[in-house]
């Protein structure tokens, strides 16, 4: 069992599903976010309010950490100036504080948006070149390169989870991109408990028949998703409008983020259900 884990973004939708399983993997789980309260704490869990853009607050929250599961960020496209603190500087603050405290590993919530402008008919693997679809995706590229540099120069391990779409299936795109919450938990668990990872990238996607990405080069992590979005296909496709091959949202891996102007919300074009876990 790990002595101390830190989870950033614990107040978010995905964080709400990770808190309980992570609390069972560590003697102490420190959950952090910007909200005042995240509800009832699990056994061994404490909550620390911390601003990712403030190095001193991040440094204090990570004291004694063996590993960091870094899910905190603005989770949408926005003007660069809004993303700079939490998404860019925040990533640096987490890696630097983790290194200074002697942590073993950072597990990072990266995103398909780091490679979102690749064409959808390309089944991309984990070594495909960065091709961000937004400032949000650019921040993911920055953190992936940051993680590689800290591994190469300082020996701090990291696993970068390129999550496709971890939300209820409400569109044809999600038939390929869906990551169920159960598979999310397995993905993070494998990223934490695999003995050695160096610098690694893995796609966060369930075992979908229509998955557009290839995880073969990350097989050593032991991530074997169980769920399949095909169960939703008939209902989703019955109400889907005709396909448009001129629409980047349909033709690129990044979906709506590939089509919006830089700085404009991608989530506003999506039907994301806020079904965060209540504890």
TrEMBL record:
* Family label: Belongs to the NAD(P)-dependent epimerase/dehydratase family.
Starting at the broadest rank, the lineage of the source organism is: Bacteria, Pseudomonadati, Pseudomonadota, Alphaproteobacteria, Rhodobacterales
- Coiled-coil-forming residues are none
Q: Which InterPro entries match?
A: Epimerase_deHydtase (IPR001509), NAD(P)-bd_dom_sf (IPR036291)
* Record's protein name: Uronate dehydrogenase
Occurrences of domain NAD-dependent epimerase/dehydratase (ranges): 6-163
Q: Name one Pfam family in it.
A: Epimerase
**Record-level Gene Ontology MF annotations:** oxidoreductase activity
Q: List the keywords (alphabetical).
A: NAD, Oxidoreductase
Species assigned in the record: Shimia isoporae
């Amino acid at each position: 069992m790990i002595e101390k884990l830190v989870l950033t973004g614990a107040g978010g939708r995905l964080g709400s599903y990770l808190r309980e399983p992570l609390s069972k993997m560590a003697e102490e789980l420190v959950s952090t976010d910007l909200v005042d309260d995240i509800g009832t704490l699990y056994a061994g869990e404490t909550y620390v309010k911390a601003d990712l853009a403030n190095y001193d607050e991040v440094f204090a929250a990570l004291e004694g950490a063996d590993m960091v599961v870094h899910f905190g960020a603005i989770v949408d496209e926005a003007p660069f100036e809004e993303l700079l603190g939490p998404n860019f500087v925040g990533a640096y603050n987490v890696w630097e504080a983790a290194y200074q405290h002697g942590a073993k590993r950072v597990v990072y919530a990266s995103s398909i948006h780091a490679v979102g402008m690749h064409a959808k008919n390309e089944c991309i693997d984990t070594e495909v070149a960065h091709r961000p679809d937004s400032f949000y995706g650019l921040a993911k590229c920055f953190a992936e390169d940051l993680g590689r540099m800290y591994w190469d120069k300082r020996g701090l391990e990291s696993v970068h989870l390129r999550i496709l779409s971890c939300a209820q299936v409400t569109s044809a795109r999600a038939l390929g991109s869906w990551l169920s919450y159960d598979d999310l938990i397995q993905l993070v668990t494998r990223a934490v408990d695999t003995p050695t990872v160096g610098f690694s990238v893995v796609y966060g996607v369930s075992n979908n028949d229509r998955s557009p990405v290839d995880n073969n080069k990350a097989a050593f992590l032991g991530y074997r998703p169980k769920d399949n979005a095909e169960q939703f296909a008939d209902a989703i496709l019955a109400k889907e409008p005709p396909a448009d091959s001129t629409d980047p949202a349909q033709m690129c891996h990044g979906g709506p983020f590939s089509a919006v102007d830089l700085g404009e919300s991608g989530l506003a074009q999506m039907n994301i259900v806020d079904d965060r876990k209540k504890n």
